[in-house]
């Protein structure tokens, strides 16, 4: 993602808001997660099945799937909200290791620091919607290369971007 942005490529605007927030903060606000944040089809279908259940017997049909999502309480109609919450947490938090790897790679280019300084400006680069500001050119124009001392053997290999926005 960082390389694409640095080279003026299309922005990777495909992440959910909670994923973007994790990338620039390194933390997940689990209280703000909702069923709209569930992106995988299986979990979305399971949520629909739980919502459509009219009695406890119909909930029992999905007991194995619910246990695999981490729900361990009784399957009652009164517990539908907590059942759905367990599915949401299971579906979203399993993505955290992948997001951590993305974040680590983005740190190499200084993009995480850039996002932390300007979270709203960088939001449209990662979350779907109309890109109004900034684009890759905006970010790269605000980055200045830091070179090693002239004449050293590291001159060509020790180039790092120092972003100042």
Question: What are the low-pLDDT stretches, counting only 5+ consecutive residues below 50?
Answer: 157-165
Number of strands: 2
Terminal residue distance: 19 Å
Helix count, per DSSP?
10
Structural class: mainly alpha
Name the average pLDDT: 82
Shape: elongated
The radius of gyration computed from the alpha-carbon positions, rounded to a whole number of angstroms, is 21 Å
H/E series: HHHHHHHHHHEE
Q: Determine the fraction of residues in helical runs and give it as a percent range.
A: 40-55%
Strand content: under 5%
Count structural domains.
2
Largest sheet: 2 strands, antiparallel
Strand order of the largest sheet: 1-2
Task: Report on this structure.
With 165 residues, the protein is mainly alpha-helical. It folds into 2 domains: 2-26 and 108-163, no CATH class; 31-93, no CATH class. It is 52% helix and 5% strand. It contains 10 helices and 2 strands, in the order H-H-H-H-H-H-H-H-H-H-E-E. The protein has helices at 2-6, 17-25, 41-52, 56-60, 63-68, 80-93, 96-108, 111-117, 119-126, 136-141; strands spanning 143-146, 160-163. Strands 1-2 form a two-stranded antiparallel sheet. The longest helix has 14 residues, at 80-93. It starts with a helix and ends with a strand.
């Amino acid at each position: 993602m960082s390389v694409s942005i640095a080279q003026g490529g299309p922005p990777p605007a495909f992440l959910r808001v909670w994923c973007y927030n994790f990338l620039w903060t390194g933390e997940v606000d689990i209280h703000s997660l909702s069923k709209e944040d569930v992106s995988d089809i299986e979990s979305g279908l399971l949520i629909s099945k739980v919502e459509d259940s009219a009695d406890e017997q119909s909930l029992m049909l999905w007991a194995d799937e619910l246990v695999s999502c981490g729900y361990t309480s009784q399957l009652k109609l009164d517990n539908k909200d907590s059942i759905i919450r367990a599915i949401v947490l299971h579906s979203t938090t399993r993505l955290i290791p992948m997001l951590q790897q993305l974040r680590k790679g983005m740190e190499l280019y200084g993009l995480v620091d850039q996002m932390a300084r300007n979270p709203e400006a960088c939001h449209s680069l990662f979350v779907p919607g109309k890109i109004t500001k900034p684009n890759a050119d905006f970010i790269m124009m605000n980055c200045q290369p830091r070179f090693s001392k002239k004449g050293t053997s590291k001159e060509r290999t020790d180039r790092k971007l120092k972003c100042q926005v």
